[in-house]
Amino acid sequence: MYLCLCKGLTETDVRAVAQAGLTSPEELIDALALDDEFCCGRCALEIDSFVAVAKEEWARVHPAPAS
Predict the structure, then answer these.
(1) How far is the CA of 29 from the CAs of 21, 53, 64, 67, in angstroms?
(2) What does 28-57 look like in DSSP terms, one character per residue?
(3) How does residue 51 score in pLDDT terms, banded at 50, 70 and 90?
(4) What are phi and psi of 10, to 5 degrees?
(5) Cα separation, 50 vs 18, whole angstroms
(6) What does pTM read for this prediction?
(7) pLDDT of residue 66
(8) For the segment 22-45, what is each residue's pLDDT rounded down to a tens digit?
(9) Do the Cβ atoms of 34 and 43 come closer than 8 Å?
């Protein structure tokens, strides 16, 4: 699913960045270049959806240890 049309970013792109541990809004904006002149800015307004995908991926790749 596309999350950013002007950059052509998909959910898979966000998941790949998350696997490197980048899950905060600031990290995602920087890593995915959502604040450059070629981005319309809609993504930054919807960053919560990017963060949710990233955190889901991080949890999938790095599950919490069983207690």
Answers:
(1) 14, 14, 26, 34
(2) HHHHTTTTSTTS-SHHHHTHHHHHHHHHHH
(3) very high
(4) -110, 170
(5) 10
(6) 0.82
(7) 77
(8) 999 999 999 998 888 877 878 878
(9) yes
